């Protein structure tokens, strides 16, 4: 009887481990974004006196990030992310390394709304030992593997007599759940 019970337990454990290998629970996420800033020269133009600058926002940088983590049914994600942000006005190139938590509930058959929060450390490149906390909040809409988003990011880095550097970014995100 003990041998039959032992054999049953071994077969059960073997079948569970085979089924666990078929389930994929990791993801890879790639983002590219453009940073926007308020236009300080709105309705003013020194270069072209006959033209008025009516834009509310102007481009202020580019960024790209990549992350790897685990997910639960493509609905909840938790991962480690890093990348590079280039801020033109502040003349800053920074590398954030952060933990990213996301929720992506389905609102339609193929549509998801995404909310993500990230917290970690940001490092300025070429500025000595300049680093500080990094935070981001993101909302977006798309499908399981392609998302258009808007996010706000903050580096607690003292630069040019500013206590922190903030940005609003628009971008796209590609997520691969088939790893």
Strand content: over 45%
User: What is the radius of gyration computed over CA atoms, rounded to a whole number of angstroms?
Assistant: 23 Å
Class by helix and strand content?
A: mainly beta
Question: How many DSSP H or I helices?
Answer: 1
Strand order of the largest sheet: 1-2-3-4-5-6-7-8
Average pLDDT figure = 83
CATH class: Mainly Beta
Distance between the termini: 42 Å
Under CATH, the topology is which? Answer: Porin
The largest sheet is: 8 strands, antiparallel, barrel
Question: What is the oligomeric state here?
Answer: single chain
> Which shape, going by the Cα principal axes?
elongated
Task: Explain what the structure shows.
The structure is a single chain. With 179 residues, the protein is mainly β. It has one domain: Beta Barrel (Porin), CATH 2.40.160.20. Helices cover 12% and strands 56% of the residues. The protein is built from one helix and eight strands, in the order H-E-E-E-E-E-E-E-E. It has an eight-stranded antiparallel beta barrel. It is elongated, with a radius of gyration of 23 Å.
Topology:
Layout: H1 2-22, E1 26-38, E2 57-72, E3 76-87, E4 92-103, E5 112-124, E6 131-142, E7 146-155, E8 165-176
Antiparallel strand pairs: 1-2, 1-8, 2-3, 3-4, 4-5, 5-6, 6-7, 7-8
Quick tags:
179 residues, mainly beta, Porin, 8 strands, 56% strand, elongated
């Amino acid at each position: 009887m003990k041998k039959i019970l032992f054999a049953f337990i071994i077969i059960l454990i073997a079948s569970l481990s085979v089924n666990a290998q078929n389930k994929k629970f990791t993801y890879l996420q790639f983002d590219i974004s453009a940073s926007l800033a308020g236009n300080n020269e709105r309705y003013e133009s020194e270069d072209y006196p006959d033209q008025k600058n009516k834009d509310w926002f102007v481009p202020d940088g580019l960024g790209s990030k990549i992350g790897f983590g685990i997910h639960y049914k493509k609905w909840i994600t938790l991962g480690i992310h890093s990348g590079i942000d280039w801020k033109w006005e502040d003349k800053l190139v920074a590398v954030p390394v952060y933990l990213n938590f996301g929720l992506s509930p389905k609102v339609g058959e193929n549509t998801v709304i995404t909310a993500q929060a990230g917290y970690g450390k940001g490092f300025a490149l070429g500025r000595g030992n300049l680093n500080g906390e990094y935070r981001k909040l993101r909302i977006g809409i798309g499908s399981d593997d392609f998302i258009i988003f808007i996010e706000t990011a903050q580096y607690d880095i003292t630069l040019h007599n500013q206590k922190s550097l903030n940005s609003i970014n628009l971008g796209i995100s590609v997520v691969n759940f088939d790893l």
